[in-house]
Design goal:
Elements lengths: L11 E5 L6 H13 L4 E5 L1 H22 L5 H16 L1 E4 L4 E2 L13 E4 L5 H8 L10 E4 L4 H15 L7 H8 L2 H15 L4 E3 L1 H5 L1 E2 L11 H4 L18 H12 L6 H6 L9
Parallel strand pairs: 1-2, 1-3, 5-7
Antiparallel strand pairs: 3-6, 4-8, 5-6
Helix pairs in contact: 2-3, 2-10, 3-5, 5-7
Amino acid sequence: MSKSDYQRIPRQVFMTTRFPISSVLNSHFKALNSLNPEYEFYLYNDNQVREYISEHWGDFLIGIYDSIGEEYFPAKIDLWRYLIIYDKGGVYFDDKSGPVRALRNLIKPRDRMIISTWGENVSHWKKKYGHKKGEFTNWCVISEPKHPMIKCIIVDIIRRIINSDGLETGKTGVLNLTGPIGSTTTILDNLEDMKSEIRILKNTFNRKMYFNALTKTKKFSRIHESMREKDRLYSIQKTPIVDVSKVRALVSEYSSGCNHCLESIIFEIPDSKQRC
């Protein structure tokens, strides 16, 4: 590899969607490929998402994944996106999202992780943390493999699932338990110690990303919503997100009462010294 080709963040994009793929999304995926010919694109279906976790992360993680209700598939994907980016590195996009221009215009050779706010829930984060730019995106995740911030996000998602009382439901439950409210909390809790390893942007990656590339806006659209089955529409769900009995049985089997060794269980690190 020549110096001009060097890039710490692998040139690969991971996405998942419901199959069969609609014509609108198919056109979107083709445009992403055309815009970024130097990137490998990996599009996972529902079964491949589960197979990846089972094959690469083992019984404990697949047990956590399976404890999330089938009607909350977006919450399952919240976990998967961080697992696959931690493992392989690259870029994760929600199926409707994408860059305004080619990724080469955003990602620099020595970037290790790029995060960005996008103006959501500004008052919440300002009141809680004094953070004035709002929530960090989780619909776009950009990182090298094994980044410590991604590791902390994974640990915190699983810790929240383990500590769930089974009362979390619907959109608010997902956003807090596995989604961007949870991940933003983790980022702000750890950012001071990791600033040298993360490039921090605002205004949706300096206006270089679309939350909804189908309409080129930061809003949901009827075009995309009409492609979803009920298990994608988590905001309408009334059932608990987490099967608490499954989680408690899993924790009992793996932890042997050792609450502090969650990280070691997840990453299979004996006597891990790095704690999140």
